[in-house]
Amino acid sequence: MTGNFTLQRTLVKLFAWMWPNCTRFPVLAKLALCVTCLPLLAGCPAGPTGAHIDVQDARVRQLLPGQTKTVAYADLTNNSPRPINLVSAHSDSARSIEIHQSTTHGDMVAMRRVESIVIPGEETVRLAPGGLHLMLFGVADLPPHIDIELFWADGQVVSIPFRRTSILPDREGMQPSHTWQTSYTNSKSKVASP
Length: 194
Prior knowledge:
Blueprint: H1 2-21, H2 26-42, E1 53-61, E2 70-78, E3 84-90, E4 96-105, E5 108-119, E6 124-127, E7 132-137, E8 145-152, E9 157-165, H3 178-182, E10 184-186
Parallel strand pairs: 1-9
Antiparallel strand pairs: 1-2, 2-6, 2-7, 3-5, 3-8, 4-5, 4-7, 5-10, 8-9
Helix pairs in contact: 1-2
């Protein structure tokens, strides 16, 4: 993801430099430059978080003593008019990451894996306690920030820095919202391989 954004900036700089310096065969050189660079620019994401995806408040809960699993939360916003699907996640800081959904039935709290998270067009889905979240397994050490790659069904991969937060639960997100109830697909999750 960052590499594509860097490629885009590099191509723009190259284009800006070459355009006035095409003196020997100006028309052919400029035409070749346009034919080569413009399709590459069209395929690059619009910004550092991706063309249609905005990730806010990305955080991973500090490890409990003696534990090797933890949970990550974030607000995922789809800026496109069409739905997008988060299908898996990966981090070098964890052996594996699964997408999970927590539900409450009376006094019972249940957690299960889900295949993907559907984010409707121009909406935000909140990964938070009591609802959708990312479970990280096989975490040996948790630095203040870790990068988690989010894999989308359209092939886009977005690498996001998640900050480490306290073990204490977020009180604001304990009740599931209607968005969580309608924004996931029942089934096993797809786990990204390193």
